[in-house]
Specification:
The chain is mainly beta. The strands form eight sheets. A nine-stranded antiparallel sheet has the order 12-13-14-15-28-24-23-18-21, with no helix packed on it. 6% of the residues lie in helices and 35% in strands. The chain starts with 9 loop residues before the first helix and ends with a strand. The chain is globular. The longest helix has 6 residues. It binds beta-D-glucopyranose. The site of beta-D-glucopyranose (BGC) has 9 residues, from strand 25 and strand 26.
């Protein structure tokens, strides 16, 4: 059953002094209704009994809004987004909240060899391919089914050769807002030819609230002893680099801004943090990273079975070109991304875990963004 994003939760209707139930409820679902490639695009809202909600459009499977309570029980939207579909189609930042596929992150020069053949992908990021190319999943319309008020199932068939990738890929992504304020994303894919898959979600988070300025005061902890260092085009060198004694050491929580301006070759190459962290453990039973907003007290814990986490500190956001919800300027470093993934350029890096999917196999991965309040 689809739930309109205009419905206020029942318990809020009578007593509603709660001025703070803002952004999701101002999103107008009509602004997301359009037919693209003969498919209907809509805005879906998932809710749990505690008042948290997430708005998702099936255009790119994007998380448009994610409302969670802060320390004063004020619902706060913690992801950047636009008011309407047009924003998602026309703004220079392609990936806000999107499902990324077939391959999250970069593949050097968009080339790889597989099963004795060489392939050329779209070159959409300097000399490389990024996030599935020009027509990656972020631009595709998924079929959507809402089995209940807290989940959404999205499916998409990526044609053989789409973006340069071999094989027909049948993709399913299930979003679920759990009773304990976690946004759980389960990805599944199957293929009819040997291919590559590495999916993720590209939400831009600001736990102070979207549009509330810099994220440099957020405290971040990542359970990773190493990163995969990159060249100036953000392609991994293929080696691992220990974080100890470097600005990349987030093994104990520190402010994102604490060392971001240090003199460091990797920070220079990434124009800030834009690196894959090698997670020490990646099971769903313990978190791999934690972020805390000192302003709202909102805590986000990430759980994943993926081996890598791309920490991107919003270095390419510029207030001028990223006018966000309600006309807010999304300035430089006013959001961060933590994208769970296999390592960048794995198809060309023999030492990195494989991203190959063969017919008969099922790609399956789960990531959870779990929200709470700092005690
Ligand atoms: C990449 C950045 C890129 C950004 C685009 C991130 O996943 O690591 O380099 O600029 O996506 O939005």
């Amino acid at each position: 059953m689809a739930v309109s994003s205009c419905d206020l939760p029942a318990e809020k209707k009578s007593t509603d002094k709660d001025t703070t139930l803002n952004v999701t409820y101002k999103l107008n679902p009509n602004n997301f209704e359009q037919t693209i490639n003969d498919k209907k695009v809509k805005l879906y809202t998932l809710k749990n009994n505690k008042g948290a909600s997430v708005a998702i459009t099936n255009f790119g499977g994007r998380v448009v809004s994610l409302m969670v309570p802060d320390k004063n029980n004020v619902l706060t939207d913690v992801v950047l987004g636009y008011d309407d579909l047009k924003g998602y189609q026309s703004q220079p930042e392609n990936y806000f909240g999107a499902i990324i596929g077939r391959y999250g992150n970069r593949i050097a020069k968009g080339k790889f060899n597989l099963a004795g053949k060489s392939y050329q992908l779209d070159i959409n990021d300097g000399v490389n391919t990024l996030h599935g190319g020009y027509n990656g999943f972020y631009k595709q319309v998924f079929d959507a089914v809402q089995p209940d008020s807290s989940s959404l199932e999205l499916t998409y068939t990526s044609k053989d050769g789409e973006g340069g990738y071999p094989g027909t890929l049948n993709v399913k992504v299930v979003y679920n807002l759990t009773a304990d304020d976690a946004l759980r994303i389960a990805y599944t894919a199957t293929t009819d030819k040997t291919t590559l898959v590495n999916m993720t979600n590209h939400a831009y988070f600001n736990l102070n609230g979207e549009g509330k300025g810099s994220i440099l005061n957020h405290l971040l902890m990542i359970k990773a002893d190493a990163i995969t260092p990159v060249d100036t085009k953000l392609i991994p060198t293929g080696k691992l680099q220990a974080v100890k004694g470097t600005p990349f050491d987030f093994t104990t929580a520190k402010a994102i801004g604490a060392n971001i301006n240090d003199r460091n070759e990797q920070l220079k190459n990434g124009k800030g943090y834009d690196h894959n962290f090698v997670l020490t453990k990646h099971t769903l039973s313990q978190s791999v990273a934690t972020v805390i907003s000192p302003e709202t007290g909102i805590v986000m814990d990430i759980y994943t079975d993926e081996p890598g986490l791309q920490f991107y500190s919003g270095n390419f956001l510029t207030g001028k070109t990223h006018d966000g919800r309600g006309g807010k300027a999304y300035d430089y470093r006013s959001a961060f991304c933590l994208e769970t993934q296999h390592f960048p350029d794995a198809p060309n890096q023999p030492a990195f875990a494989s991203t190959v999917l063969k017919p008969g196999q099922t790609y399956h991965t789960i990531t959870e963004y779990r929200f709470s309040i700092k005690k």
